[in-house]
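Following up on my earlier thread - several people asked me to post the actual chain instead of describing it. Fair enough. Here it is, all 113 residues.
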Amino acid sequence: MFGSDFTPILIMLVVLAGLFIILREFMCWYWKQNKIVDLLQEINDKLAGKENPLLEPANLDTTSQSTTAAPSSKVTKTEWICTCGTKNPLDKTKKIQNCSECGKNRDFVLKNS
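Reply from S.P.:
Thanks for posting it. Predicted structure:
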């Protein structure tokens, strides 16, 4: 008598659980969640790999770097020399003049040299 009262409730719970699992799988398939999870896991595995240059520490070895100073800028009557070493024609009628090689501003270069 005790088991017969709960049998319909137990059957309904089992049917609802099965229906939930089926609908959940359908919704995950429809919204491509399974594929998205797989792709994110693949990306995560690639980022965690040793071949990833983004995760490697920066090369902070300063012994191999050149210790020569950058060339200073100079100005003559017809040209100005940028800190990158490029000779540019001097045109004082132009308010703004940039280096033809590196694009630095003439007034900024000459003021800060």
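The longest strand covers residues 79-81. That should answer part of your original question.
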